[in-house]
Automatic annotation (TrEMBL), chain A:
Stated name of the protein: Mn2+/Fe2+ NRAMP family transporter
Originating species: Homoserinibacter gongjuensis
Keywords: Membrane, Transmembrane, Transmembrane helix, Transport
Compartments where located: Membrane
Membrane topology: Multi-pass membrane protein
Keyword flag Cytoplasm: no
From TrEMBL, chain B:
Protein name in UniProt: Uncharacterized protein
The organism's taxonomic lineage, starting at the top: Bacteria, Bacillati, Actinomycetota, Actinomycetes, Micrococcales
Length: 381, 241
């Protein structure tokens, strides 16, 4: 989406964000594997109930909006394929998400959506098939300049939004809770690192490919992405029907997978803050409030969609707000992963701490700049 | 045996080591987070020279969280208490020597479970979930299906509990022994022989040899033992621990 306006000049933000999420997700996974404590438990433990509640409110709200956007995404893809309006698909999509959350095993739901999401690789294939001017693309990415037609304030507004999206805390909540769902211990730390180093960069690569394909096809024609069919346009132009089919499967899986992750995260965060029992590894009867939170979350998400607001716009705003709350999540993770009470001998190495401190500065700057940039740029207009 | 984390002489800072920590019951089920602590009374405005220092009586949870965040004070009867004496371990989480459902603080969990979640199918385990389930060894080899579950009555109180002893596994196509698994029933001989032949190779796996029960399969531990599936009620009774 941003690709059609800014070309590849914001690609560096995605890179910075992906390295950051790898760093902190790995840290939260290590804390969970070694101490058995998930991220929101340690947030409340270190920040206390007040700051913890503030973070819970912000994170839960963003999570809910992302959930709505993902369910809206599923509905839009189904509309693209069937021609039937999204209002019918929204409740059905939410119900499908709930059934999977209620019935499927954690490992199934994690692997299946991940594998199918790989078919989004068609975006990368499309970039190659479109036969772009590679020199110009890489030049844009490596020597970023604000495009002539754009206001620098908008450029930085989108930079903060992209950074907030790449470092969105629900991924950390999901990853650390997942480590406990799968019963990770000290011996699984290597596996955890592999998962982080493969999964998150792949996601980042895909978003760059989407941006690149948009840059190639849409930027020259001055088309701004306002609907899903325009995101699809580059791929169809490059690969025809087969690519389109791959794309539909990939988008469905990606939206569905993200909907599952955000739904579970909504349950994880609230249950961990209040100290309730949670998790897919327990039967629903043993984690009743956790399941109730997710059911209510899905109902609210569908209700929000039904009002007719544009879920994509809602997510855009919510990632900016999420940037404000980032320090409240990442500071406790950094502190606890250095706490020998929790980590024993597996505390952070100095190199990890060095990198984390650099990121902490970026995170705090982004958090402070988010709201002023939003106001000054008129939300990126 | 108590954990070394609760050894005499250990110093704790309440805010750091106790408040907001997760409380787990003896099976590791989360009970609550520590929302506040209840101390024994200290007389206000008097010389403390002859007064013993207060001790922590209870971990508190529930409505006190609201007052910690927003200020004010809730009536004492709205607090949920967990007595200090049931604490078994004071680590990054606080473990109790008690069951989660012994405490009032889980009333909302129980209410949601009984009133809402229990109305959705797929919540609790029923016997039919087990019967017919495929049984596999640790390396994935299928060894048959569950055809029955054997229970033992325990305790002298009435009504006594029936606890699972193990699962009866069979490769046979016929779902049940039709009663011929009992030593006492062996007539008509022909039927007895036929059904026993059909269930040749069926066996009992004890609970301790079962590693995991999943949605559609039962996994056995490596090195599990195949016990005779013959049901001799008296022999079982005499081996009752």
């Amino acid at each position: 989406m941003v690709g059609s306006r800014f070309g590849m000049s914001l690609a560096w933000v995605v890179l910075v964000g992906v390295v950051g999420i790898c760093l902190f997700a790995n840290m939260s996974g290590r804390v969970a594997a070694v101490s058995g404590r998930a991220t929101f438990e340690i947030i409340r433990e270190r920040l206390g109930p007040r700051a913890g509640l503030a973070n819970l409110g912000a994170s839960f709200f963003i999570n809910l909006m992302t959930m709505a956007a993902e369910i809206g995404g599923i509905a839009l893809v189904l509309q693209l394929v069937t021609g039937i309006g999204p209002l019918l698909w929204m409740p059905l999509a939410a119900f499908a998400v709930w059934i999977v959350v209620w019935r499927a095993k954690f490992s199934q739901l994690e692997n299946a959506t991940g594998l199918l999401g790989l078919s989004l690789i068609v975006f990368a294939v499309a970039v190659v098939m479109l036969g772009p001017d590679w020199g110009a693309l890489t030049h844009q990415a490596l020597v970023p300049t604000v495009p002539q037609s754009e206001n620098p304030v908008s450029y930085w507004y989108y930079a903060v939004a992209l950074f907030g999206a790449a470092m969105t805390p629900y991924e950390v909540f999901f990853f650390s809770s997942g480590a406990i769902e799968e019963g990770w211990g000290r011996r699984d730390l290597g596996q955890a690192r592999v998962n982080v180093l493969v999964g998150f960069p792949l996601g980042g690569l895909l978003s760059l490919a989407i941006a690149a394909s948009a840059t190639i096809v849409l930027l020259p024609q001055a088309i701004e992405v306002t609907s899903l069919s325009q995101v699809v346009l580059p791929v169809v132009q490059a690969g025809g029907t087969v690519a389109f089919c791959f794309l539909v499967v990939g988008m469905l899986a990606a939206f569905f997978g993200a909907a599952l992750e955000t739904t579970l995260s909504s349950g994880y965060t609230i249950a961990q803050y209040f100290g309730w029992s949670w998790g897919k590894f327990r039967r629903p009867a043993k984690a009743a409030r956790f399941h109730l939170v997710m059911i209510l979350g899905l109902i609210v998400a569908v209700a929000v969609l039904m009002t007719g607001v544009d879920p994509v716009a809602v997510t855009e705003y919510s990632v900016v707000f999420s940037a404000v709350a980032l320090p409240l999540t990442y500071i406790p993770i950094l502190i606890i992963s250095n706490d020998p009470d929790y980590m024993g001998s597996d505390v952070n190495s100095p190199a990890v701490n060095g990198a984390a401190l650099v990121y902490l500065v970026i995170i705090v700057v982004a958090a402070l700049a988010a709201i002023p940039l939003m106001i000054l740029s008129g939300a990126g207009a | 045996m108590k954990s070394p984390t609760v050894r005499a002489g250990r110093l704790l800072d309440a805010q750091l080591h106790l408040l907001d920590r997760q409380v787990l019951d003896r099976s590791g089920t989360p009970v609550t987070a520590v929302d506040d602590l209840e101390l024994t009374d200290v007389p206000l405005g008097t010389d403390l020279a002859k007064v013993e220092p207060p001790v922590i009586e209870n971990l508190l949870a529930g409505a006190v969280l609201g007052t910690r965040i927003f200020g004010g004070r809730t009536p004492d009867n709205r607090w949920h208490r967990i007595p200090w004496s049931v604490i078994a371990k004071l680590d990054v989480a606080i473990s109790l020597e008690a069951d989660a459902d012994d405490f009032d603080v889980r009333w909302s969990e129980r209410w949601v479970r009984d009133r809402i979640v229990a109305r959705i199918p797929g919540v609790a385990m029923i016997l039919s979930d087990l019967l017919g389930t495929e049984v596999r060894e640790a390396d994935g080899t299928a060894v048959g299906r569950v055809i029955d579950a054997r229970f033992r009555l325990e305790g002298n109180t009435s009504p006594s509990r029936a606890r699972l002893v193990g699962l009866i596994v069979s490769r046979g196509a016929v779902a049940s022994y039709l009663g011929y698994e009992r030593t006492a029933a062996s007539r008509p001989v022909l039927l007895d022989k036929l059904l026993r032949a059909l269930h040749r190779g069926s066996f009992l796996v004890l609970w301790q040899d079962i590693e995991r029960i999943e949605e559609h399969q039962v996994l056995l531990r490596s090195g599990y033992e195949r016990q005779s599936s013959v049901l001799d009620p008296d022999a079982q009774a005499s081996s009752d621990r």
